[in-house]
Specification:
This protein has 326 residues and is an alpha/beta fold. It has a single domain, classed as UDP-N-acetylmuramoyl-L-alanine:D-glutamate ligase (3-Layer(aba) Sandwich), CATH 3.40.1190.20. Helix content is 37%, strand content 21%. The protein has eleven helices and 13 strands. The strands form two sheets. The chain has a nine-stranded mixed sheet with strand order 5-4-1-8-9-10-11-12-13, with helices on both faces. The protein has a four-stranded mixed sheet with strand order 3-2-6-7. A hairpin with a 2-residue loop joins strand 12 and strand 13 (249-253). Helix 1 packs across helix 9, helix 2 (45-55) packs across helix 9 (266-279) and helix 7 (205-212) crosses helix 8. The longest helix has 16 residues, at 284-299. It is globular and about 50 Å long.
């Protein structure tokens, strides 16, 4: 046992990052431009992870800012519906707006149109972080998007400082979205700083490659980050599975093949499944596999937050599925 696994097993997560609204075309298979009905639900990577964690029996609080309008209130109500604590969310007036993602339940010619002009979640301040009692949590989780702009970039690093002082491990989902950043150079620098400050780092091959300055250097970057004692790095490779780097070991795991209806939501669900499974006492390898199963469940259903499985649904999936790839 170490501080990282102890913190995750405490099962009380402070999540830094955005909430948003998802609009997904209905029925399954229809393109957005051909749809006359859209389903609305919670979106945004950090909010999705929070909803996924609570569904799997964890406690999660989202620390962010939302707009003082109907969409902000919609997102707040959906967070509360899923059981995510909203007491650390600040409502911001003016022209800042929630993120909105409009996408489809289809894999061929998949379209995801994201509106992030004047995004309100970038308005989180250092003062917002100073108001949070981090000792009430057992671990802090951040998605990379929150680092893309100020003041939320400095605020998130401030949150990391408070977490360190409270003895909490820091979990980092790289979650690189080029459209949010002023330049790739700034992103690579800032995300690398965030990685260095973190105890558990999760990303895909493209994200690690991006941080390293080339796709062919991504795995070496992950190995380098994993050299710090006590740190865990999970290098995801899509259909090829994942490699978990911990204590000098490389744990290779496969995926659970399903008939996917969309390519989004897998990363958020993986993170929720991974953390909730470690918290429930599963081994690191089994927790990665359970996270992978959660990812498969989510890509096989419409929406992101509503598609996240409960523990009962996850266990049923695992007992009925023929098994992971090797």
């Amino acid at each position: 046992m170490n501080a990282l696994t102890d913190g995750i097993r405490g099962n009380r997560f402070a999540i830094l990052g955005r909430a948003g609204m998802d609009l997904f075309a209905d029925p399954i298979g229809i393109k957005s431009e051909d749809a006359d009905t859209f389903q609305a639900d919670l979106g945004g990577s950090s909010a999705n992870i929070g909803a996924g964690l609570v569904k799997l029996g964890s406690q999660a609080s989202l620390i962010t800012s939302i707009s003082d309008d109907a969409i902000g209130r919609f997102c707040l109500k959906r967070l509360q519906y899923y059981g995510v604590d909203t007491s650390h969310i600040r409502v911001v007036g003016g022209e800042h707006r929630m993120s909105v993602a409009i996408y489809e339940s289809r894999t061929e010619d998949f379209q995801n149109v994201i509106y992030r002009n004047g995004a309100v979640d970038f308005q989180v301040t250092e003062e917002d972080m100073d108001r949070v009692d981090f000792s009430a949590f057992s671990a802090v989780l951040s998605a990379g998007t929150v680092f893309a702009s100020e003041p939320s970039r400095s605020a998130t690093f401030r949150g990391f400082e408070h977490a360190r002082k409270a003895g909490l491990p820091i979990i980092f989902d790289i979650d690189y979205r080029p459209y949010s950043w002023p330049s790739p150079e700034v992103a690579a620098d800032v995300l690398s700083r965030a990685g260095e400050a973190s105890d558990l780092i999760v990303g895909n091959d493209e994200e690690f490659g991006f941080m390293a300055g080339g796709l062919d250097k991504g795995f070496a970057k992950a190995q380098e980050l994993a050299e710090k004692p006590g740190r865990i790095v999970i290098y995801k490779m899509g259909e090829k599975g994942a490699v978990t780097l911990a204590d000098g070991q490389e744990i290779k795991t496969g995926i659970y093949p399903v008939d996917a209806i969309k390519p989004v939501g897998a990363g958020d669900s993986f993170m929720a499944g991974l953390l909730a499974s470690i918290a429930a006492g599963h081994s690191l390898k089994d927790s990665v596999m359970r996270g992978s199963a959660c990812a498969s469940i989510v890509v096989s259903k419409p929406g992101c937050a509503p598609a996240m499985p409960t523990t009962t649904q996850l266990d049923a999936f695992l007992s009925n599925h023929p098994g992971p790839t090797t």
